[in-house]
């Protein structure tokens, strides 16, 4: 992943299935801190920032499903669905701009 995308993550959000010691050692060797869903105890660095980003992403996805009608597609073909998704994303951005008072 690092060579191809030039991404060097510092934290990694994972499901509870990745709780094994060998996986944890491999991540430590790469310098990545993991935070596991449903894991009790100390919250690792980057967890609060990750949750803030997640809240924003979930907000956009929820708007698309409820308001823009993306819960169930009305189109046949991936390109039509992709085009509708792109248009609904543009509509959401225009809505955000109007709320800021820019547009």
Distance between the termini: 39 Å
- Label the overall shape: elongated
Can you count the beta strands?
2
Helix and strand pattern:
HEHEHH
Whole-number tally of structural domains: 2
In what order do the strands lie side by side in the largest sheet? 1-2
General description of the model:
It is a single chain. With 103 residues, the chain is mostly helical. It has 2 domains: 1-54, no CATH class; 61-100. It is 55% helix and 8% strand. It is built from 4 helices and 2 strands. It has helices at residues 2-5, 21-30, 47-66, 78-100; strands spanning 11-14, 33-36. It has a two-stranded parallel sheet with strand order 1-2. The longest helix has 23 residues, at 78-100. The protein starts with a helix and ends with a helix. The relative contact order is 0.09.
Short structural description:
Helices cover 55% and strands 8% of the residues. It has four helices and two strands; from the N terminus they run αβαβαα.
List key phrases describing it.
4 helices; two-stranded parallel ribbon
How is this fold's topology laid out?
Elements: H1 2-5, E1 11-14, H2 21-30, E2 33-36, H3 47-66, H4 78-100
Parallel strand pairs: 1-2
